[in-house]
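User: Hello, can you help with two protein structures?

Assistant: Certainly.
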Amino acid sequence: MISEIVFTSPEHYVDLEELCDYRGYDKGKLDALGIKHMSVLYEEDLISLAIKALRKVDLNDVNLIILASESNVDLSKPLSVKIVDKLGLNECITFETKFACRAGVDSVLMAYTYSKITGNKSIVVCLDEAIYEKGSAEITGGCGCAVIAIDPLEQGIELDLKTARSYVADIDDFYKPMSITPVVNGKLSIVSYLYCCKKAMESWKNIKNRNVTEYFDKLVFHVPFPRIVKWISTVLYAHEKKNITLHIEDIIKNPNLYNKWRDERKSVETSIDFIDWFNEKVEPSLRFHPYVGNSYTASVWLALISTLVNSKIDIGDKIGLCGYGSGAGAICVEMIVKDKIKTYRELPTKKLDVEKYIELRKERGLD
């Protein structure tokens, strides 16, 4: 079972209001997206960030370390080799997985299965830096590392592997060439996220024959920015609880219906019953992300930590976790709380002046 979850961010952050003032970006987007700070690697790197996180968990008798990342520009050598070497864990089985931001969830399912079959402890490291070219997407960057420890001898969080369900579609919403920055179609990426997450959860629903909004005590999603989690929550709630005429599938088929669909979604979002449901089951997962930004593969695990820390969780509670990766695909897995687990999070505490942040970007060839 999952016995420990750790999240560490870089020490430094950029105040996004100050960045908007410097760049001339619309500050209204910060409230619209639900973001305040963006964590930034400054006098640190991804390897040191991962080692800092791994040193927070029990590494004794670990036999498998999987790294999930989309930040490695070396297509041959996994970053995990550098990490295990520095920690002296050279006899561990280690490799790297890739499916944009959802790779961490895929990796946890893989490691969980390995531990269940072999009886050996395993660890998944979700390590990423989200950094964008100058422009409107820049404010949605961030960085972080999540470590998920799996110990078959410990009580903790159990995964229902039999009912885990995925949905994938060939959608070019996000493309990352051999570069630290991606090419992003923002509007398409939002629609793709909503579409794939809904389809994955519908696939789970077809197996369990239960409503997602009723069955789970808590819901946790990948968080590229907090506001999108309210949107996917609205999509699911409207589908199961409201009599609406348009669904996200209709937007995939006919993008011209987007504005009408958005208006219907907003009417659901402002309803009292939805607000009460969302505040109880989803909102606790979003308390930390405004101060970190998007950490790609690590983001959904920070959301799970936030849920465990900021809401009342009882033994036997069921948590629905949905990971999403651009390109595109979503995966839904049921988690059952068997016992309390150790969690740790470390958010950025040192503000980096915007001028220093810009200098850092110039050194990396970004400005």
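That covers the first. Now for the second protein you mentioned:
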Amino acid sequence: MRTATGHGSKSAISPRVREVPSHGTVLGASGQGIQEGILSRIRVARDALHPAEGRVADAVLLQPSQVVHLPIAELAASAKVSEGTVIRFCQSVGCRGFQSLKLALAADLSQPTLVLQEDVSAADGAEPALVAQKVFAADIAALRDTLKLLDPPAIKRAVEAIESASEIVFFAVGSSLSVASDAAGRFMRIGHRVQTSADVHTQIVIASLISPSAVAIAVSHSGASSEPVEALRLARARGATTIAVTARHPSPLTRHADIVLITMSTETRYREEAMASRIAQLSLLDSLYVAIAVRQPEASLRALRETSEALSGHRVR
């Protein structure tokens, strides 16, 4: 029987309280555990929360600096929920209670922040340099937030699974397809057998015939695109190890994943499924690639050398 790992692991928690990433704990001055990256983890879990808990999440994300100083009764009133719902929300995002949530928020807010993270507006059109600053700030924030959500045990399991796999198969559509194609090319360059296809029907066919000794990696920012979800479901049913790279957990995609790797980016009015999400995905998959390469240095360097020589004749001199 397969055991889910990392963010996709199952634990003895209430069926109501959805599991969210709970790593990155540090100790505060009082010795109480403080969850790092709490704002990022709330954004990841937002869509999977109970509607009432979702209202608490929205209130926290709207004014986190004020929530740090609010009593629980005031937060409950502003979200139009009971105090018990606030407590359940805290537990759903990995905090023991309201005080633990406030400590985690304070820790997040105390870290150096980037300026110009606000949404690009129509008024910025006259200042392209300002637009560039905001876009770059959002991309940097996506990398920083994804790093906060990094789950070391899940990364290790993913690397070990890929290292021992007979082949690596990538599934993705839309804007995530270019990320999957880039990662497939990288793993191919260091000698791994890789399959990927831009045609969604071909992806389904590949998934339906995948070997149990293979690793299937599905990339989907929303975690809800039907084709990657179906492909990962089929791959898991065949016995392959399945990895989901997504910004939503729980999600339809992560239901079929043995290992879940979370990326983070904030969508804005002009940047729905923005480049920031793909930058985070690329960096996460690049981390897996580099980890594999350094664990197999001789084979990786030899494959890189041979493929570079093969490609050298195709460069304009």
